[in-house]
C-alpha cells in the first residue's frame, strides 16, 4: 500500500510539473536576424489586428477574444517541454494583440492621456525588471530555463508591448508627428543600442531590452502607416489586408525556423575533466642472470 501511495504521489507531482516549463530547458530562441524580423512583424500585426477587431465587432467582445487568445497562447507555451517556434511565436503574436488592446483601453475607455499611459507602463516595466533582477540575479534571456524565469520574461514582454503601443500613439497623435515620421524616429532610436552593442561594447542585456522595447512602437507605427486612411496620414491599404500580409510573412518565417531549428539555443556542453593516465605498474619479478 505504501508503494502504491508513493507511486501515485510521484505521478501527481510529474503531472503538475507538466503544466510548467521543464527545469533546465531553454525557453526562448537564439537572437538572430530572423528573431528581430519576426518580432517586428508581430508588433505590426498586433497593432493592425487589434484595430481591425475593435472596428469589426463590439470592442468589449474584441478585448475578451484577445484576452482568451493571450491566455491560450501562454498556456501552450508554458506546457511545452522546451522552446518550440510555433508555440513561442504564437505567444508573441497574441501578446502583441492583447498588449495593444490593454494600452488602447486605458486611453479610449478610461480617457488616460498617452503621456500618462506611456509613463505608467514604463514604471510597470521597470518594476518587472527590478523584481526579476532581484529574484534571479540576471535579466539575460540565455538563462530562461525555469518556470519562474519564464513567467518574469513574459511579464516583461507584455509590459514592453503595452508601453510601446502607448509610446507610438504618443508620438503620432500627441506630438503630431504622424505614422511615417514616428516610424523614422523609432528607427533612428533603435540604431542607438545596436551601435552601442556593436562598436562601443555596451552591456548586451541592456542593449537587447532597449531594442526590444523600441521595436514595438516602430512596428506599430509602420502598421498604422500602411493600414490607416490617407486622411489620417496613412497609405490607406486597410487594417484587414495588412493583417493578412503580415500573418502570411510570419507564418512562412516561423515554418522555416520550425523545420530547420536554426533559432534553437544550444546549451553549452560542460567541459570534461581530463582523465588521469595511470602509469604502468612495475613488475615485481626479478630477472635472474
TrEMBL record:
Pfam families: DUF347. Keywords: Membrane, Transmembrane, Transmembrane helix. It comes from the Bacteria. Residues 267-289 are annotated as: Disordered. Residues 275-289 have a biased composition (Basic and acidic residues). The chain crosses the membrane at residues 20-38, 58-76, 88-106, 112-130, 151-170, 176-195, 202-220, 240-258. InterPro entries: DUF347. This is Membrane-anchored protein. It comes from Actinocrinis puniceicyclus.
Amino acid at each position: 500500500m505504501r508503494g502504491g501511495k508513493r507511486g501515485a504521489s510521484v505521478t501527481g507531482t510529474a503531472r503538475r510539473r507538466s503544466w510548467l516549463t521543464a527545469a533546465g530547458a531553454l525557453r526562448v530562441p537564439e537572437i538572430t536576424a530572423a528573431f528581430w524580423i519576426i518580432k517586428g512583424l508581430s508588433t505590426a500585426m498586433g497593432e493592425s489586428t487589434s484595430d481591425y477587431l475593435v472596428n469589426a465587432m463590439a470592442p468589449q467582445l474584441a478585448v475578451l477574444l484577445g484576452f482568451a487568445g493571450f491566455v491560450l497562447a501562454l498556456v501552450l507555451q508554458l506546457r511545452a517541454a522546451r522552446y518550440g517556434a510555433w508555440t513561442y511565436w504564437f505567444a508573441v503574436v497574441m501578446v502583441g494583440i492583447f498588449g495593444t488592446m490593454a494600452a488602447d483601453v486605458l486611453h479610449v475607455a478610461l480617457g488616460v492621456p498617452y503621456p500618462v499611459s506611456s509613463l505608467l507602463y514604463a514604471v510597470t516595466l521597470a518594476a518587472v525588471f527590478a523584481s526579476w533582477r532581484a529574484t534571479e540575479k540576471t535579466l539575460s534571456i540565455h538563462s530562461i530555463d525555469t518556470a519562474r524565469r519564464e513567467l518574469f520574461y513574459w511579464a516583461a514582454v507584455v509590459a514592453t508591448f503595452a508601453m510601446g503601443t502607448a509610446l507610438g500613439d504618443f508620438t503620432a497623435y500627441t506630438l503630431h508627428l504622424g505614422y511615417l515620421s514616428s516610424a523614422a524616429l523609432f528607427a533612428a532610436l533603435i540604431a542607438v543600442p545596436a551601435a552601442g552593442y556593436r562598436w562601443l561594447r555596451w552591456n548586451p542585456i541592456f542593449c537587447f531590452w532597449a531594442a526590444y522595447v523600441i521595436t514595438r512602437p516602430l512596428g506599430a507605427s509602420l502598421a498604422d502607416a500602411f493600414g490607416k486612411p490617407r486622411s489620417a496620414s496613412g497609405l490607406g491599404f486597410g487594417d484587414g489586408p495588412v493583417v493578412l500580409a503580415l500573418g502570411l510573412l510570419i507564418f512562412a518565417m516561423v515554418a522555416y525556423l520550425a523545420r530547420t531549428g536554426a533559432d534553437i539555443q544550444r546549451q553549452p556542453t560542460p567541459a570534461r575533466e581530463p582523465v588521469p593516465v595511470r602509469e604502468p605498474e612495475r613488475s615485481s619479478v626479478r630477472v635472474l642472470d
